[in-house]
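INFO batch 0412 | record 1 of 1 | parsing
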Amino acid sequence: MTRSAARALRAVPVPLALIAMISLAGAVLGRVYAGPLLSWLVLGAAVGSVLVSVAARRLPSWLVAPVSVLAMVGWTAWSLRLTATRAELPGGLAEVTADAAANGIPRLLTAMIPVEPTPDTVLVPLVAGWLAGLAGAEVAMRAGRVLLGYLPPVLLYAAALYVVGPNADPAIGPTLALAAVAVLGLAVPARGAAGADAAAGLAPAVRAAVRARLAAASAAGLVVVLGMVALIAPLVAGQVDGRPVDPRRYVEPPQVETLDENPLIRISGWALNPGQQLFDVRTQRSGPPDSTPAPDPGPDAGPGAAGRPVPVRLAVLSDYDGVTWRVGATYRNAGRILPVTAPAPDSIVETVRQEITVAGLSGRLLPAVATPRQVTGARVAYDPTTGTLIRPEGLTPGLRYSVTSALETPDANLLATADVPAGEEVARVLRVADGVPDPLRRLAAQLAESNGAPYARAAAVEQFLAEHYRLVADAPSGHAYPNLNFFLFGPRNAGGQRGTSEQFAAAFAVLGRLTGLPTRVVVGFRAASDGPVRAGDAYAWPEVLFEGLGWVPFDPLPRPDEEPRPVEEDLRPAPEDPPPSEVPEPTVEPTVSPEPVAAPDGPADAGPSTALLVGGGTGGMLLLVVAALLALLLMRRALTRARLERGDPGQRIAGAWREVTDALRLAGHPVGRDLSASEVAARARAVLPVEADVEELAGLVNQTAFAPGTASAEQAARAVATAGDYVAALRAARPWWRRLLWSVCPGPLRWPR
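INFO prediction complete | emitting tokens
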């Protein structure tokens, strides 16, 4: 082998190491991208930057950077054109490049994962990779400082790890590969710019001394490196299981205006101008493989309806604070391919593709069939929790885009027995804001009283609203608690009991949450398969979340040509007296005043003296008070005996539970009717921590509610004993004067149960 060939062979490992290290950085970053395109583009940038430095090693150092930058511009322009074409983005290369340069970093850090390779998401990695290759090659090969030349690729690799953060699995394999490549590059002796041996041309003795010093310096450097590894390795190893910081939390995602955050308030405005064309739609539908096409239940027809046009959603509103329903979304910039969420297990998925052309629709919200999977023709941001799409730049007339959606249809046969989820995951759609009017709570309790199953409760709310209220187009907008209270209970001759779909959907969602159903409100359009969608097609509908079935739409709107029944016919007033079946009230005969008897002597007009009248009146009043207290005492004891001693075990357990809740109310700690038995037990334990097992009593109450007839006499006896112990302890903890009034307080006799 010739000397020049050997010198060239020794010069190969360092450029290859630099290319490999930059490519590994691109591969690490590419884990959050859709497809391998970004990794290939960064690899091209690594090869191009290093090869330019190798080819220009004969040129002056000041000339290499401009030549390399010109090559970088060419590679970057070609890459931006490629990604823009693949993403089907409109506009020329100059427009696309300017937009990518202005928004590259924020869009990269706010993009939906997986990130689609588009000009604004690949520009920064490409430029950073090329500059790292240029700097590393010049320092490592021209200056002969290989270890220092590794610094730019290592910093690029660290930046890629930081950008990925916790959004991908730990990059253990690429990191080990990076270290191995660096070691192989360092194994080759560093050469100067001329490639000459530093000891060449010296006398043998001097050459040996120089080489010995170089070997000693290398050994000392190796010792320092090994020492640093020994010191730093434990610290690095301790962070292996740690969760990295996500830089996305420091960058604000795209925001929307009030009308986009609460499009429900636009319903009334659209209803007053029904002929306005908002957009045009063209629809293609295809059923799932190896199955018949799924039925198409539109919210206007309720669950299980078929043969209806598929509704187009504008926004999903999950948050309610007692004043306003809001989307509450966190939008992330997304490419054409949107994140895939697993469909509900017991649902049929149908593919729906729509081409939509915007006309008079304003704002940022993009209409689409649930659940969108791919969007072409428009740059979008997406909230996967609600499935809501926006165009950050806003809608403009003539905008045309295509949406491919996976429409889920639940199995209607499973609705009657389906349960609803609970816990922190659905707390957002179960939350009821403070300040609920008492009539709303009473109505929710009445509707849920005889409907134990979740679907039965939802159907009862739907039927009640559809039968008692009128749908009108000129009702004012509003869905705060006072608006809903007036809509549900206001007098008809003053504008009550009438509203748009806004009030119907909001009332259903609030009443549903008061009965324990996870609900939300959807704003959308009744869209035909093909043709214009007008303002009169806009409406809102509620949805309920069922386990295994997903979100199921309901239709509380009244049926056409049906006259609503007055609310007063079916709305029971709050009971003032206990039901006779539960409280056998003893009959107390009224005191009969004696017939006046004329005095045997004296004048006929002579009456009793003042002292006699005062004494008799005082005694009579005292007698009436004593009689009333005695009657209350007897009635309270009769109520307690009826609860605890009569009926089957389930009725006795329920009676014991009512004794506990009445005692809490007597003690000044009333519990709301919207609380579950477990929550009431926790509150009772917080009020008075005693040995009585209130949690066990709550469990028995749940058992009798969800599995009637399964309670035993022994369980009923334990429930009665637990209730007695807790009530006695709670009464003993009250002041003496409250203990005296405890047994004669008339509250438990009239409190609703």
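INFO post-check: The two ends are 101 Å apart (CA to CA).
INFO record closed
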